[in-house]
Amino acid sequence: MAALQDAAIAGVAMSQQGDLSDRTQASVYWECVLAALDDAGLTLADVDGWIGPAPEGPGLRGTLPGGAIADDIGHPLRFHATSAIGASSQSAGVGLAAMAIAHGMAEVVVIPTASAGRAAGYAGSDRAAAVEYMARLGSPYEYLWGTTRVADYAVLARRHMHLYGTTEEQLAEIAVAERYGATLNPLAVMGPRGEITIDDVMSSRMMADPLKLLDCCIINQGGGCIVMARTSRVEELGRHRPVVLLGWGEGHGYLDPNRAPELTSFAGRLAADTAFGLAGVRRDEIDVAGVSDHFTINVLIELEDAGFCEKGEGGAFVEGQALRIGGRLPTNTDGGFLSSSHAASCGLYTMIELVRQLRHEAGPRQVADAQLAYAHGVGGVSHTQYAAVLARA
Length: 393
Fold this sequence. Notes:
Helix content: 25-40%
Number of helices: 13
CATH superfamily of the largest domain: Thiolase/Chalcone synthase
Number of domains: 2
Shape: globular
Structural class: alpha/beta
CATH topology of the largest domain: Peroxisomal Thiolase, Chain A, domain 1
Distance between the termini: 19 Å
Number of strands: 12
Order of helices and strands: EHEHEHEEHHHHEEEHEHEHHHHEE
CATH architecture of the largest domain: 3-Layer(aba) Sandwich
């Protein structure tokens, strides 16, 4: 019987992260694809599956990405798919790729992402347009009244504080822990700026009460890629220890946030319970985690929903730098979206970091003897989510 662990992550790569406005999106895209294939010991000739959009270009590339990729690489694909979990869409592609490989629908699947070629940000250099664009991705019925993406998450943070006594200082612990990881990551955008303290977070500019500037993700450009293949083939290639997917789950809760049954718990529990159930792994066996951190409150809520602590206990769980490398549950050890990179389908970088941890290739930020990892990604204002349990084979 086909199993998820019949497929393994064979190669990973990332470009420089930051301001890539002097480059084309396509050049960054292909840089990452070729580097990830090289990391795996494979070439474009080996590829028969692809996840997500083709690089930018004219014609029907956006509508028929599989055909566009076939043109680009010079041969047909056996498999193409697209996930739709917002900023986590490409990292969610790992689940699709594993299923395709396990069931014989593809042998080698490429999962890339890239952004470049314009002023850094979602809508070029027009900041007002960028704010409006992101606001529309929350509730289509509220942005007209002045809401923003940070305001959407500020509502969740304030509600969590009201119900459970969570403090702003506890949220700041998350930003501090992740910045430490960024200082050990040569690709992290904010790493060169050094470590931060809780006082630094608390004194940073208010964005939407109670979220301050250092509670918010950065906006930048960059790219990355994951290549997956049959586990036996990865072993034969001998480049790296295979990283396999033990469990996978998704949770799709709502489209209009006003329809969410509550504001401090979402479909992440559904995703996590499915993933852990398939993996046969307990939460306390996880060595390292990567969770979407568009804002600090994301991390706290997602860890609760994933079952690492009870609902309402997230604030206490993250205290004492528990999420820092060397802590109880090292989380977003590369710096995450807060301090490493929030470019393109940025959830892919979360998965790449976990692969490096499980390969024991993370250098000074390596979690000692990491064997099991947990990935959790969200799209929108926690509208849709995925969960994954990964293992060092």
